[in-house]
Automatic annotation (TrEMBL), chain A:
Source organism (scientific name): Oceanobacillus luteolus
Protein name, entry field: Alcohol acetyltransferase
TrEMBL record, chain B:
Protein name, UniProt field: DUF6320 domain-containing protein
UniProt cross-references to InterPro entries, sorted A to Z: DUF6320 (IPR046283)
UniProt KW keywords: Membrane, Transmembrane, Transmembrane helix
TM ranges: 59-77, 89-108, 115-133, 139-160, 172-191, 203-221
Lineage, broadest ranks: Bacteria, Bacillati, Bacillota, Bacilli, Bacillales
Length: 432, 239
């Protein structure tokens, strides 16, 4: 926040996300922690209030300015709610009095659903971590240190990382993606979002990735691409490149404490027109692509790219309601429309040892998107990796192909979905 | 814990379809083994239908108020100026008929047949009134009545046929063209009749000549077209 002013600008990514919000593409992603005992709503509410004292820049609401949206500080307090809608759905963050996130509880789970216009996965995890810490302090009495938050620290947590590392003289990268393969999926009705989570032992995955001498991210990206290639083979006569959008957390390359968006997307791809790819070949290509792009020098180019798009004079002079009208189609044409799907890795979630025994699992769900109807996000906690697919369609062709491939490698996969409870109703209706 | 025989993945509950491929996973757990399951997700509600309803209701109430004000105002002005209702009869009847049309299209009547009949009656009343206000019924009986009734009947028949079809796909489009030809020729007949130019035989030949290509195309699609092109068209038009 800027000194005594109680508002701040959105970052580059946030500006884009705020303009493309719709009833389907809510830009909400979910981070959840499942504890070992049922959640007490009163304590959770208290914990949320304490967490907002620690992160005052989250006590804001999205407002529409003349040219851009902005976040404005508020005296209202967000209320925790019992989960009742489909994940990442049915929250209009632009409505007056609504926050750009919400906190849900259900049985043992605390779920934080955040709009991407506010922060990315890393920022969200930090917030969720603090929330769970405060909750466990109230509930189980785990010790916490009383932190004194200095203005410098707040400044560092709200800095715009893109602007800080933006270098005017660096040229933007030349990437031409062209026409990529699209999964033949039909959208389900509004308000529905289908999640499939696969739970995989990390050790087995690590061992398998080591056999190919790559990291788990590269390994899973390669399986993801292979699954998409198999589906293309089966469903489409014309071959197209398979392009995956992989967000990169910039904090690992450019030191920053920011809790706003600070990521860029790289796009590893395999061109199916060149012939049939073996799994080893895919892994090699992805590995080279990752090591080629993931250097501070190359990533600075991507920063440049995401900043210049915001600096264009035409865009800046366009009133924000008009931006709202044109942004969704521009985004689906030049942004997501160029990818086949997205896979992001939130990495390993580590919590202090005194908290660990109260937290059973940590999961995340990707934000729904119309350009890429299926997206996946992975995170690992303790000895498990949780791979969650978010799907705006009812068809699970990609999930099926992906988890079958993993299973064929001899790795155990446990599947959970959010449709089960609703299917129960359907099944009993069918029987009657 | 149970496994899907096709996917090989593990699921918590047995005796239900696999979440990935819908293959029925057999019952493997002993009855005593079944632990009390903790629900992972709530029974979710989808707020969008009721939200849309609320928005539509609000729009409808607003329109109704607007119509009420407009009608009263026009009637008042007309009466003040002419000491009788003259031009306001035309405008008020049109506005009210428009309101009726919106009522039927806003989803307050659930049955499609009733919606079609309702809109047809609405139109008949409007046209009857407009003709009558001129002094005598001029064009309502020979033109408006058969055309509106014919349109309604054709629409109802088309909807019944589409509903009764076992395979919809291309048939929906084919029958649409047939309905369109019949309707257009029906209208054509009454207009020619009004101009005293009717030649029933000629009319019948033209109608059949128009229907023939539609029928031939439908037969070709059903029996002659390669499966691959059919699939492609079905994909492109979401049939």
């Amino acid at each position: 926040m800027r000194g005594d002013k109680s508002w701040y600008q959105l970052d580059n990514a946030g500006k884009l996300y705020s303009s493309i919000i719709s009833s389907r593409a809510t830009t909400l992603f979910r981070l959840s922690a499942t504890l070992t005992s049922p959640i007490y709503p009163d304590l959770l509410q208290e914990a949320l209030e304490l967490t907002l004292q620690r992160f005052p820049f989250f006590k804001v609401q999205l407002k529409q300015g003349f040219f851009w949206y902005y976040f404005e500080g508020t005296d209202q307090m967000p209320q925790v709610e019992k989960e009742r809608y489909y994940p990442c759905m049915s929250l209009s963050i632009k409505k007056r009095g609504s926050f750009p996130y919400r906190v849900y509880y259900y049985n043992n789970r605390i779920a934080l659903e955040l709009s991407h216009s506010m922060t990315d996965g890393t920022g969200g995890l930090k917030f969720l971590g603090e929330l769970v810490k405060q909750y466990l302090h109230l509930k189980e009495g785990i010790p916490i240190e009383q932190e004194e938050i200095s203005d410098e620290q707040l400044e560092a947590e709200t800095e715009n990382g893109f602007r800080r590392y933006y270098d005017k003289s660096i040229p933007a990268p030349k990437t031409k993606l062209g026409n990529s393969f699209k999964l033949p999926l039909e959208l389900d009705k509004k308000g529905y979002y289908h999640i499939v989570t696969g739970i995989i032992p990390v050790e087995a995955l690590k061992k398998k990735a080591k056999e190919y001498d790559v990291s788990i991210t590269i390994f899973l990206t390669a399986i993801y691409i292979q699954s998409l290639l198999t589906i293309q083979e089966r469903t489409s006569r014309r071959k197209r490149p398979v392009v995956i959008n992989v967000p990169v957390n910039m904090r690992s390359y450019f030191p920053s404490d920011t809790m706003r968006n600070f990521f860029v997307s790289i796009t590893p791809s395999i061109d199916a027109r060149l012939g049939k790819y073996e799994f080893e070949e895919i892994i090699q290509e992805v590995k080279i692509e990752f090591s080629r792009l993931l250097t501070p020098k190359k990533l600075k180019q991507y920063i440049k790219q995401s900043v210049i798009s915001e600096k264009s004079l035409m865009l800046r002079l366009m009133p924000s309601p008009i931006k709202d009208m044109v942004a969704p189609s521009i985004y689906s044409f030049f942004g997501e429309g160029q990818y086949t799907s997205g896979l992001s890795n939130l990495g390993i979630v580590r919590v202090p040892s005194e908290m660990e025994k109260y937290i059973e699992r940590v999961e995340c769900y990707p934000p729904p998107s119309i350009g890429n109807k299926v997206k996946a996000i992975l995170t690992s906690y303790k000895e498990h990796m949780y791979i969650s697919f978010g799907n705006l369609s009812k068809d699970r062709m990609l999930e099926r192909e992906f988890f079958r491939s993993i299973r064929e490698l001899g790795i155990q996969v446990t599947i959970e979905t959010n449709d089960e409870e609703n299917e129960d109703g359907l099944l009993s209706e069918m029987r009657n | 814990m149970a496994y899907c025989p096709k996917c090989g993945i593990r699921v918590e509950r047995d005796n239900r379809p696999c979440p990935l491929c819908s293959f029925p996973i057999p019952k493997v757990n002993e009855d005593g083994e079944e632990v009390v399951r903790v629900r992972k997700f709530p029974k979710t509600t989808n707020p969008y239908p009721s939200y849309m309803r609320r928005v539509l209701n609000r729009i409808f109430i607003f329109i109704t108020l607007l119509v009420f004000v407009a009608v009263s105002l026009m009637a008042y002005i007309d009466y003040e100026l002419n000491e009788m209702f003259t031009w306001s009869r035309y405008s008020n009847l049109s506005v009210l008929a428009g309101w009726g049309f919106i009522f039927f299209t806003f989803g307050y009547v659930k049955n499609y047949y009733k919606v079609l009949i309702g809109i047809g009656l609405d139109m008949l009343i409007l046209l009857f009134g407009l003709d009558l206000f001129n002094g005598s019924l001029d064009w309502f009986i020979p033109l408006a009545f058969p055309i509106v009734t014919g349109t309604t009947v054709v629409a109802i028949l088309y909807w019944s046929v589409v509903r009764a079809l076992s395979v919809r796909g291309f048939n929906v489009i084919g029958f649409f063209f047939i309905a369109a030809v019949i309707l257009i020729m029906w209208i054509n007949f009454f207009i020619q009749n009004y101009q005293n130019k009717t030649d029933p035989l000629n009319w019948l030949i033209v109608t059949v000549l128009q229907l023939l290509p539609v029928l031939l195309i439908m037969l070709y699609v059903k029996y002659g077209m390669p499966e691959r092109i059919k699939q492609k068209i079905a994909r492109k038009f979401h049939l």
